[in-house]
Amino acid sequence: MLAFGEELSGYELKKWADWSIKFFYWSPSFSQVYTELKKLEKHGFVTSRVQHDNGVRGRRLYKITESGTAAVGRWSNEAPIDPPILKHGVMLRIWLGHLNKPERLKEILRKHIEYVQKMERRAAADALGADKEPAWAYSQIVLRWSERYYAAERELAEQLIADIDKADAVLAQVKDGDDAGFPKPAPGVWRQVEQETEAENPDLE
């Protein structure tokens, strides 16, 4: 964010993260923001100064240096691109659906839909805001992508609600397991399925 050239406080950087990069990457805590700023200053990538206004306790402002701009530019252009890592707590619960009741799973998904609808609306609003500043052209198109991403997430969750009854019907046909009270696959069947899948799809990595 400092690479956009503005002198900002840690508080301002946190707030900016909340209405920009949180939609597609991460929103750090205030403590993380200040920890990273200290590291950046130690490496000479940013400088800081204390601004005093009308005798009020000063606030520390941070500004990127030429070496800092060069460093983030090198990272953006040359660093290996890491594949996105999806850690979806809702999907993990659905994956463990045999330990739950269908209505509870649907309730979890409905709450998830409420969340993604909120994020979709927020991303759309922030994209409109970004559109007012030409220097944020790339930020604006990423926020539009974020809006579409959350819309797609909502549609997928809605489809899952419909799929739960189908999955529960299939599960009901499985012979009950032991005292744990839920159906179990045959021991070792996952290895057999893995081998068959790899044999049928040799190009998969």
UniProtKB/TrEMBL annotation:
Gene3D superfamilies: Winged helix-like DNA-binding domain superfamily/Winged helix DNA-binding domain (1.10.10.10). Residues 7-72 form the Transcription regulator PadR N-terminal domain. It holds the Pfam family PadR. InterPro entries: Tscrpt_reg_PadR_N, WH-like_DNA-bd_sf, WH_DNA-bd_sf. This is PadR family transcriptional regulator.
